[in-house]
Amino acid sequence: MRTSKRFTTGQRVTDRHLLRSVEVDDVRFxxxxxxxxxxxxxxxxxxxxxxxVVVTYIGYTGGRGLPTDHLLWSAxxxxxxxxxxxxxxxxxxxxxxxxxxxxxxxxMTRGVDSPEHYYYRRLITDCVRAxxxxxxxxxxxxxxxxxxxxxxxxxxxLAVAGPASDDVAAVMPDVPFLCHYRRAAEISGEGPYxxxxxxxxxxxxxxxxxxxxxxxxxxxxHFAQRATTPALFSVGLMDxxxxxxxxxxxxxxxxxxxxxxxxxxxxxxxxxxxxxPVEQLAWLRExxxxxxx
Length: 293
Fold this sequence. Notes:
This protein has helices at 72-75, 119-134, 152-161, 181-187, 193-201, 205-216, 220-224, 244-253, 276-286, and strands at 2-3, 8-12, 22-30, 36-44, 51-57, 79-83, 140-150, 170-174, 231-236, 259-264. The chain is an alpha/beta fold. Strands 1-2-3-4-6-5-7-8-9-10 form a 10-stranded mixed β-sheet, with helices on both faces. The longest helix has 16 residues, at 119-134. It is globular, with a radius of gyration of 18 Å. The two termini are 32 Å apart.
């Protein structure tokens, strides 16, 4: 087992999953309150030199899954850190989950009575510290870190790109969740924003305003205003879960001059599906973040 200030790399699990071209490590790093957060670190087998690193955050109610779920980026020559979501995955518990209000199933109202208690304060802290921790592993290009994810993962990538702009070379939020909470709760026809709508349906107007005050601290629109790193967004124009207007709200407030939106006109919440990584790989290469052939 290798240890460093911010990373513990445990058993190499490549052989367990019968992978021959990829090396996989089961890692832990300290997240919120120093609590260990699980992640997979995948690298092309035998790769030398500092590799550009893609840090991926996961969609709502998902965890890091298995290494075999995440082979694209290592196949393209990148190091790939796949970060578990506390309380949502099986390997990173949310030990403070009972602190604060939770009215409905899910995570959207967990601790929503105050910014100090809100669930996403802890999860976003984990995600920022994942970028911090990359610098402690040898062979990784810690100045060439790309943060990305779809849906919740896209919202988390935006949340990291703001406060960690100096350490992030690019951000790629796909159909991002956690943007413009109020509008999303008002118009979304499916998915997690309905948890907020159901919660607010039974509370007074005063309670509604307090709830959205809490949520404003964790809104991707506000994080976008602090982010200057190059950004590649994507949006599905028929997305019922993360309505396009909420994605465009974050995109239009993004502070960086180098911002691009990939538009999928007839797409639902899956966005571009398998076509989107092709766009991402080309976009990264254009910005000097590709892997040499």
